[in-house]
Each structure stands twice: as C-alpha cells, then as structure tokens.
Amino acid sequence: xxxxxxxxxxLCRALVDAGVEVIFGYPGGAIMPFYHALPDHPQLRHILVRxxxxxxxxxxxxxxxxxxxxxxxxxxxxxxxxxxxxxxxxHMDNSPVVAITGQVSRPMIGRDAFQETDIIGIxxxxxxxxxQVQDVTELADVVAxxxxxxxxxxxxxxxxxxxxxxxxxxIEWHPPQKPRHPRAGARGQSLTPGASPGSLEDGVxxxxxxxxxxxxxxxxxxxxxxxxxxxxxxxxxxxxxxxPVITTLLGISGFPDGxxxxxxxxxxxxxxxxxxxxxxxxxxxxxxxxxxxxxxxNTASFAPQARIIHIELDRAEIGKNVPVAVGIxxxxxxxxxxxxxxxEPRRCERWLEHIRGFVRPRTEAFRGDLSPETILxxxxxxxHGECTIVTDVGQHQMWVAxxxxxxxxxxxxxxxxxxxxxxxxxxAMGVHLARPNGTVWAISGDGGFQMNMxxxxxxxxxxxxxxxxxxxxxxxxxxxQWQQFFHEKRYSCTPIWSPDYVKLAAAxxxxxxxxxxxxELADVVxxxxxxxxxxxxxxxxxxEANVYPMIPPGGxxxxxxxxxxxxxxxx
Amino acid sequence: MLLDDALVTLNRAFGVLRRRNVPIExxxxxxxxxxxxxxxxxxxxxxxxxxxxxxxxxxKMIGVRSVMVLANEDxxxxxxx
Lengths: 571, 81
Hints:
Chain A is α/β, with parallel strands linked by helices. By secondary structure, chain B is of the alpha+beta class.
C-alpha cells in the first residue's frame, strides 16, 4: 500500500531510515516545510542552536565522538552560508557530516530571490559531494547516498540543497533505492593502479623489510588511526617491535599517553625530543596522516635521514607532501594488522635511550601557580581521566595537546586542519549527544569562547550538561605570541576584553566559577565537574605565557625556539 | 578524463584544477560518445609524479569515471591516428 508524502516528509523518513537520531539546526523561510513535518518524526531529536555555524560544529563533534554521520539543517541564504566554516572544518578533519539546506523554490533559482544563495557553488571545494535536489522523486535516494558518501572511504561532509517547492511536492512514497553511485571508498582503490609499488602484500613485505633493517624507526600515528579504530593494531605493532610512537594533533588519544613507547606530539609545538627523534630517524612509519605542514615544518629539511612508509586510505595523500619509500593504500586497521603479522619481533632500546637524551625539561613561572599543566591535571582528577576533551584553537589547544594525559581512545577532539576558533563549545554539545553518559569538557581561550558563547542558551534549553573551561589571559594569545616572536612585540589588536564570565553564566542560569590560584583548582573544578547541568569555569592565567617550544612557520624541526627571544639572547 | 555530463560535476572538476594550483596549459571539453558522459582533456607541463598526483585528486571525485595520464609520446601517437 502506498501513501502520498511531501518532500519534507520524505526527507524526515529518509533520515530516520538512515538511523539519524539527532539533528542540529535552525529554521527559516526556505526550510519551513521540513520543520512542519519534523514533529511527526519524534525519532529525530532536534537541537535548536543559536547560530548555524554551531549546528555544523556540533554535527562534526557528534560525528567524531560517535563514528556516525552528524546532521545539521539550515535555511537558504544566510542560514546556509553560516554553515560554511563548520563544513570546512569537517572537510579538513575528515568528519562525516551531512548538511541539509533549504533553497528558494525552483522557479526563483537564479533570479537573486530573497535569501537565495548559490550554496552548491560556495561549498564545492569544502564538501566531498553536494546535491541540489531538482525532483522530489530523487530525494530519498539522495539522502541515502549522501549518508553513505559522508561515511565511506575517507569521511567528509556532504551537502543536500532542497528547494522549498520540492519540499512541498507530493508523490507516492517508495522506500529508498540503492545509492546510484558505487561506493566511493571502493572506487578509490579499484581505480588507482600503481597505488602501491605492486600489491598490498608487496607493500607490507617491503615495509616489514625496511623496519627490520632500521636502527632508528618511529611510528607516527594520525587521525586515520582513530577513524579506523586501529588502536589495538598500532599498539601491537609498537610492542612487537619496540618502536616509539608519535601522535599528531588529530592522532592524540589514538595511542595511550602513559605507554612507555609514547613520545608525544610532533611539529610546530611538538616537544624538542619528539622533533629531534624525527630528524634522527632512519625509518618513519606514518599511519593515517597527511604530513601536514604544521607537522613537518619545512619539508625540505623534514626527517632528512628517514625512509618513509606511508599507510593511508587516500591514495592522493601518498607522496603529496613528503617523498615516500613505501606507500600502502588501505584502511589503517587492516594494513597495520597485516604489518604486525609481517614484522619480526625486535627491540629499540639504544634508540629509545638516544631519544631520552633529547628531552628538555623547562621551568616556567605562572601567576598564582596557575599553570596550564595544573589546570589540566585538575580536570583529569575531577573526571577520573574519563571525560572527553574538546578544544578550541590557539595556545590552550597546544597546552592541552601536550599536557593533558589521554589514556582512552578518541577522547581528544579539536579543529586541527582548519583551525576554527569557536569550535569547542558547539562541538562539545555534539560530543555530549554522542556520549550522553560521559562527561565532556569544552576548553577554550577567551577569544574563541566569545565567538560561540551564545550556545550556552542552547545547552540550557536542550539540557546539554557541557562543562566549559575558559583560559582567560586577556589576549588572543597565540597571535600575541607570534607578534612577540616575529613582529617586534607589536601587540596589534590582540588585547581582548572579556565580560564577567561568572555573571554571564549566571544570566543563563548556569553555575559559573573563577579560579585565580592553583590552590582553588581541586575544589572548584571538582564542583563544576559534578554539576548535573552545564557549568563554566574561568581560569585567570598568566597574560603573556607562551607555548614552547615553537618551530617558526616554514622553519626546520631541528631549530626550535625554546625560550623568549630576549632571554635566549642573554638579556 | 571521463566524467558525468553534469554542470556541477564539471564545476567541481575545474574547481580541483584551480584549488590545487595545477599549472594548466590547455583545456578542452568534448562529448565522449556515451550519453551523459563528457571527456575533459587538459594539458599540464609537469613531471610524471606531479601528473600522477593531479590524477589521484580526480580519481576520488564522485562523478569522475576514469582518468588517464598521457605522456607526450602517448598523445603524439593518439594524434596520428
């Protein structure tokens, strides 16, 4: 028996059929038929954000924490354009997000109608695929295909633009057909002859040979390890061979920080011993990463002695940024498992001893002893190391990446590739919905927090108990640090005023706390962590603290800045 | 390269050339002989590895059906036919 359904109803059903449970969105003129149909589908929980950017970041956070597709919805024009930053962030960090936008009715398209914008054109370079649905008969198929495309292979965002009259069109309902296109992941492999030098087996054998002959091997684990859930495999590879493991910014929590073989984060703000290890390594096994410029510094001087084994799902990444000795195209988990079977057991004790010799302890003074390290330790203690940490972008992001002790898989979520300030607060809402029984802390600076702090209202209205930490140093700290190092200390437009965050939280009905001394940490952070609802803690930190060490942009990993330039010069 | 004959697919393909900063010397779009499929040919002066990297960016694009990299000799041979 068939029934007559509108496009909007079909859209809702297709989302339910795809297993969607949460939608982050904001209504408006061109998406109103969808919002009219939505209450008839109680399986779809809608979270009303305060700005569409937050909807996209929240969907991204949900996707990263759950491994499922995150869905966001906006109207045409400004609603759609407000999604753009969130989609670009999801694109750079390979997060499966599906965005649904309303569009003006088909007869109005191309006539510069009210709230019309070419969101297909705008999002072409920041989506895996996008669709403008021209006929309601295609709608269910397009939704099913979009969900598949977002997830498969290297994940990423997909946008579906639905003109208002298509949402209102009524047709006889048929359940969705199979996606029209073959699965992108399968395509990516079948259509890439020469992806590895020979077959997958040849690649694994060649890698195992290189590892056997290596004296100073390193594993570099990236986001692909988390996406493929290759935790046990990477750990098995490290333990069978004794090879130390470096985790990139997005690879953090892919390997336990406390493991004896874990070295830390590489790159621009990587510890000296980590970057030195890279510069001295003779073989690097890169698993699920793209050798981003923030990791490599100047590629001409990156790992000059190393032959690189690159395990990566996306063939286009192999050889893109650094020359590769052995490229293996495939899922990080599958390939690493094969590699574990192929390598011979070995130890790297002398090499580990060598690396320990690179370690540089640093002593820095912080106002009221309120160092990033003590703050993060208090969050670890309060949550018993079991929370998910979502960070924003800037100095605090680097401190968290370097100093927080991650022991559980996929508990570190941040905007890495795009580096989008304002990410943490909304993304943490998505993380909460993906992990409703866990605690989530959104850590921001005073700059990034002010970008999306309106989402506190969303938390209150929707009952999302996100714990917010604001590292307040009164500056756009990372930019100020660059100004100090590279722009003659000209602090142009980086001092930033903040409201009284405790009163601000109170205005939203949220408990707010201010911490100025390390001695207050345990009590206050413990209380905030124990709140049933959202809570905010402002940490008033040293104003001009820097993130050390630092590789100057475009510089070599061998030449870090380890102290203030003036101090380094002997003043 | 053979790809779906849809404006949005062509737009996306040109977008890849622009965004990846591919040094293009010539560009031609023709019907492929198969309904719904276009043939896009572009000429770039680059070494084989660079050409391969460009091809890989297209391989993963939805709507692209096949990509071939022709070295100078190959294209000369084709032109003679």
